[in-house]
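Listing S7. Sequence submitted for prediction.
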Amino acid sequence: MLTEWFRRNGKEYRKALVIGIGGGNDMFSASLVAAYLLDIGIETDVAGVLSPMAIHTFKGKIENPVNRIRGTVERFIHAPQPVRIPFVDGSAPKFFRHAGIRVGKFLDLSIRFGTEKLTRSMESLIETEGYDFIVAVDVGGDVLARGKEDPMLLTPLADFALLNVINRLPVDSVLVEIGLGTDGELRQDGMVEILAEIRRSGMLISEHRLRPDDPGTIAFRKLYKKVSAIRKGNTMGRLIQTMESDRDIPILHRHHSQIGGRSWNVHYESVIPSVYAGKVYVIDLKMLAESRSEMAFAFRNPLEQYVRMKRIAPEWATEIDLGFLFCDRDWTSPHRNGYSLHLLVPSVRIPYETRMEIIAHGIRNAEADFILITDDDMRSVSRRMPLGGYFHVAAGGFMVLSRRSDEREFAEEIAKQICEYGA
């Protein structure tokens, strides 16, 4: 899988960290690379990325930028009234052992603290653990997206944050792209264009095909059976499908939106082309990070990343659409501990009537102290429902809404900060 990379570098690596950069089940899909590295004698640890939509605890302590998985790990929806939800990462050590993949340590990385803090924590981790090689693993291809040219992304925040961080670390690194198209977030034409780009630019180091009878693939199937009992996801099952088929695979991708107990589902039809079935692409990570620098930017906190990403590609959904951020934890200024901001910014790809219904429901049933919506959505929704009791402050393409008349000055400070993020 990485033979050509090793040949080009002319180095012998001792210890690797394999990171599933997209969150979700990418940690478990990273097993395909981990199994390969272990088989050729490289000591290997595995890491995943925590969802920025949730708060996690490790042995009862709130997440840090870098977290060791051992003991009890729990996940809670990040909201004024947190709700505990199932979390599969805590079972990673047990599941990998069941599959016969003898990984050393398991870690979860958090992007909630911004790229600078995560980078510093990773540098310390590298020094402590002695890693001399990092493999970023993405499943589906969203980290390859180019912005507005690829409008179907649903979960880009973790991928691009980790692309920025890994690119700055003081060890060799490479990207392994597996299962192109399995998450339904790239158009068929987009996949063709992206592969042409990475070949033409010299980013593509090598490509391979996974075989159903490979030891790593067999272990991956065992992992999938365990993981799917807790978290279904899409990519792991579809990746197995592609290894078993020589035909295009039609998929119906669901975009799920939820506020409290109310949810909306929008379905998109897509196809996984047979030409990519079971394919693995090894890509120069530093070259990719440079070519995707518009999206793989450094940020100080989740609010900055969210606002900047929405300005770059408003068609994209993100992991924290309709979620909540909390002052002093999720944005750095102004400081007013505990106040919450509802990100009421559904993707513009959601049909107009559904999007208006989502926004109206969020405003009527506001749980947060402040609400963030776009200028366009503000104009549209104000024609449909009265906004009595709310004041609003312009924020550079967004609006900050609130019923907290005693906190108008605070709302103005939030709006100023959002405007600075777009500067």
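Caption to Listing S7: primary sequence and predicted structure tokens for the chain studied. The two ends are 42 Å apart (CA to CA). Residues 322-421 form a domain with the D-Maltodextrin-Binding Protein; domain 2 fold (CATH 3.40.190).
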